[in-house]
Amino acid sequence: MGYFLGGTAVLELARSGKKREGFPAFHGELGLPEGQDYSKVIGEYLILHSITDGMAPFSQLAEGLESAGVAAQLLYWSAARLDRIR
User: Fold this and answer.
1) CA–CA separation, 48 vs 72, rounded Å?
2) How many domains does the chain have?
3) Is residue 86 included in any domain, yes or no?
4) I want to staple 25 with a disulfide (CB 3.0 to 4.6 A). Which of 10, 36, 52, 80 is the partner?
5) CA distance 50 to 16
6) Is the dihedral of CA 75, 78, 81, 86 positive or negative?
7) What's 32's DSSP letter?
8) pTM of structure
């Protein structure tokens, strides 16, 4: 499990083909690095993310997982921005 950069590491670990029951990632980078895809994923994803994060568009992840047939649970929040936390 990882948060932010750790979330990115979890997603890359899954794409590397490492066998785990699941890959929980909180607010990781959702874009695919060049040359990577979801074809080697063994296990399920649990992705928790802000839908409004412009640096890591949620649509990139959803599209890639769906086209690869990877089991995933995607939970997202709207208006989840650090500048709104008081």
Assistant:
1) 11
2) 1
3) no
4) 10
5) 25
6) negative
7) P
8) 0.72
Q: What does the alpha-carbon distance between residue 58 and residue 85 come to, in Å, rounded to a whole number?
A: 21
Domain residue limits at 67: 2-32+39-79
- Per-residue confidence (pLDDT) for residue 13, from 0 to 100: 92
The CA distance from 86 to 59, in Å, is: 28
Which structure tokens are listed for 2? 């990882």
Flag whether 85 is in a domain.
no
Is the confidence at residue 19, as pLDDT, over 60? Answer: yes
Amino acid at 80: A
Residue 9 structure tokens: 């590491």
Q: What is the pLDDT of residues 41-74, one digit of tens each?
A: 888 888 887 777 666 667 777 777 888 888 888 8
Locus of tokens 């649509």: 59
Residue 57 sits in a domain whose CATH number is 3.40.50.1820
